[in-house]
Amino acid sequence: VNTVTRFLGAPLVPFDLVVVSTTAPPIPEPATAVLSLVGLMGLGLMAWRRRR
Predict the structure, then answer these.
(1) Torsion angle, CA of 15/19/20/25, rounded to 10 degrees?
(2) Distance separating the N- and C-terminal Cα atoms of the chain
(3) Using CA of residue 11, residue 16, residue 18, residue 20, what is the dihedral sign?
(4) Residue 26 CA to its chain's centroid (Å)
(5) How far apart are alpha carbons 24 and 31 in whole angstroms?
(6) SS3 letters across the chain
(7) How many whole angstroms separate alpha carbon 12 and alpha carbon 2?
(8) pLDDT tens string 4-43
């Protein structure tokens, strides 16, 4: 049985058999937390400077 079909002249291969399963860590890495904190501090500083 040929599972490759043709669509507009190009071969169409079904990729529905590929399963990728990963689990995300429940707690972010320290570098991610620090980067988020620095970004929030930067936004706060920009807002503070605009109001001055």
Answers:
(1) 150
(2) 73
(3) positive
(4) 16
(5) 16
(6) CCCCEEECCEEECCCCCCCCCCCCCCCCCHHHHHHHHHHHHHHHHHHHHHHC
(7) 11
(8) 555 565 656 655 555 667 777 777 789 999 999 999 999 9
In this prediction, residue 1 carries a pLDDT of 44
Report angle CA 20, 36, 46 to the nearest 5 degrees: 140
Any idea which residue has 């002249």 for tokens?
9
Closest to 17 measured CA to CA, from 34, 3, 29: 3
Torsion of CA 22, 27, 28, 31, to 10 degrees: -130
Per-residue confidence (pLDDT) for residue 19, from 0 to 100: 61
The amino acid present at 6, given as its one-letter code, is R
